[in-house]
């Protein structure tokens, strides 16, 4: 079936390997740069909206000042994040024109909806919220922030719908070497996209929660009695407890579905070489790709592998040797990225769980060692989220659209000089944006807001 589909793929000269690799590096860097902004935007906006709502319900000025403080930090990150997202989409035409031609009919619909509905919704209401301070009612400010939250989260729906098609193509028909949308409902209910969306959304909530926790912990180290940051801290740990627990759960079910839809990817991030039933799960593994086995497999837990991959202790787990070498993703990047991501995920659940325990015991606000640990935990959700995308995207290789179009056939007819120039410019441009974002966030996060004790 795949050979038949490949024969219908875009014809033309396949680009040299260095062009393909550099184009992949450029797109990967731009996406990872963008995802330093996007998760914080989607997560922090929910907490700001909750604070605005609490201001409306309680009439307490403290919640208004909390919403203003965290809202300024959200606005800084949102503004710079929008720029990175716009630049990212340009590459479909500049570096991946053959891919755009092949899937344009599919990609056009969700990306158009995202731009016309979600982006304009959040852009309009963030302006109303920010510039309407003192001019609109508290109810309208709360409503505006919830609309921003709806817009930012809806943007993710349509972007991930398009991305999900790349991993698990549905709702299409192939005519004259080009994919055409045949079933819109099947496209938007793609199970793979739904799993990615839920997992991504919850990981973004985790990022927003950890941001509030770490900034609050920074101030509580200096002024432990400040109600402003005590309440912010409480909201952060409660939100983090929910989101981290849910991320772990949805991550499991996403992995189970991946084993069905992309078994080679699932085998690669587990470094599983031979398919088998009743598969044990070794806790310590070092892959040996050349010999198609593992150097070590220690601390095997009976049946755990089958349970994790199939939700059945006797289920059959896919192995890499079931697939031709040219159809396998690279094992080492997937395996280590997956292991580190999972480890960070459990650590991110443990930290707010311990923080909540100490909070209930009324021992948290004067525990300087633990507060310091929380301050330095801020990079964890960003690292885990980006490693998750490394697993997702590199695991799809060597396909750009799984089973339909190989990556080397999707690149634009560009020269080595052109890609080197654009790659250098992109790295420089995004690095400046990151520096500006971090500078502004640190500047305003360190400010001690006026509070009424």
Can you tell me about this structure?
This protein has 453 residues and is mostly helical. The protein has one domain. The chain is 69% helix and 8% strand. It is built from 15 helices and eight strands. The protein has a two-stranded antiparallel sheet.
Which regions have little confidence, pLDDT < 50, spanning 5+ residues? 1-8
Order of helices and strands: HHHHHHEEHHHHEEEHEHHHEEH
Strand content: 5-15%
Strand order of the largest sheet: 1-2
Separation of the first and last Cα atoms: 69 Å
Q: Could you say which structural class the secondary elements and strand pairing correspond to? A: mainly alpha
Please name the defining characteristics of this protein.
about 450 residues; mainly alpha; two-stranded antiparallel sheet; 8 strands; about 10% strand; globular; disordered N terminus
Concise summary:
Helices cover 69% and strands 8% of the residues.
SSE arrangement:
Blueprint: H1 2-7, H2 17-34, H3 38-58, H4 61-94, H5 97-131, H6 138-167, E1 172-175, E2 178-181, H7 184-188, H8 191-220, H9 227-261, H10 263-270, E3 276-277, E4 281-288, E5 293-301, H11 304-310, E6 316-317, H12 331-360, H13 368-375, H14 379-394, E7 399-401, E8 405-406, H15 416-445
Helix pairs in contact: 2-4, 2-15, 3-4, 3-6, 3-8, 4-5, 4-15, 5-6, 6-8, 8-9, 8-13, 8-14, 9-10, 9-12, 10-12, 12-14
């Amino acid at each position: 079936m795949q050979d038949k589909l490949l024969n219908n793929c875009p014809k033309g000269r396949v680009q040299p390997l260095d062009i393909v690799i550099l184009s992949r590096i450029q797109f990967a860097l731009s996406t990872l740069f963008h995802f330093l902004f996007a998760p914080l935007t989607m997560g922090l906006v929910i907490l700001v909206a909750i604070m605005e709502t609490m201001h409306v319900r309680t009439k307490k000025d403290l919640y208004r000042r909390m919403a203003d403080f965290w809202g300024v930090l959200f606005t800084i990150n949102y503004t710079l994040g929008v720029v990175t997202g716009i630049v990212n989409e340009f590459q479909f035409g500049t570096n991946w024109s053959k891919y755009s031609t092949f899937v344009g009919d599919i990609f056009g619909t969700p990306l158009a909806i995202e731009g016309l509905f979600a982006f304009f919704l959040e852009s309009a209401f963030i302006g109303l919220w920010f510039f309407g301070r003192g001019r609109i009612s508290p109810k309208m400010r709360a409503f505006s922030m919830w609309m921003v939250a709806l817009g930012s989260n809806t943007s993710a729906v349509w972007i991930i719908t398009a991305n999900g098609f790349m991993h698990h193509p549905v709702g299409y028909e192939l005519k004259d070497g080009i994919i055409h949308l045949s079933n819109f409902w099947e496209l938007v209910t793609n199970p793979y996209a739904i799993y990615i969306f839920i997992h991504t959304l919850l990981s973004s909530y985790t990022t927003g929660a950890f941001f509030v926790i770490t900034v609050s912990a920074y101030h509580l180290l200096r002024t432990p009695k400040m109600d402003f940051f005590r309440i912010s801290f409480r909201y952060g740990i409660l939100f983090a407890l929910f989101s981290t627990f849910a991320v772990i759960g949805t991550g499991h079910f996403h992995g189970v579905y991946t084993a069905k839809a992309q078994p080679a990817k699932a085998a690669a991030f587990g470094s599983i070489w031979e398919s088998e039933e009743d598969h044990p799960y070794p806790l310590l593994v070092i892959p040996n790709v050349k010999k198609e086995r593992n150097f070590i497999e220690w601390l095997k837990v009976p049946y755990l592998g089958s349970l994790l991959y199939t939700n059945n202790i006797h289920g059959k787990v896919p192995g890499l040797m079931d697939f031709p070498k040219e159809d396998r993703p690279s094992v080492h990047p997937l395996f280590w990225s997956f292991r580190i991501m999972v480890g960070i995920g459990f650590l991110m659940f443990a930290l707010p769980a311990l923080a909540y325990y100490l909070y209930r015991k009324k021992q948290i606000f004067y525990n300087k060692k633990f507060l310091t640990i929380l301050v330095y935990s801020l990079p964890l959700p960003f690292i885990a989220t980006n490693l998750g995308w490394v697993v997702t995207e590199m695991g799809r290789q060597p396909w750009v659209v799984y089973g339909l179009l190989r990556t080397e056939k999707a690149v634009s007819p560009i020269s080595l000089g052109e890609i080197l120039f654009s790659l250098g410019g992109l790295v420089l441009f995004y690095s400046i944006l990151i520096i500006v974002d971090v500078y502004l966030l640190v500047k305003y996060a360190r400010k001690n807001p006026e509070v009424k004790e």
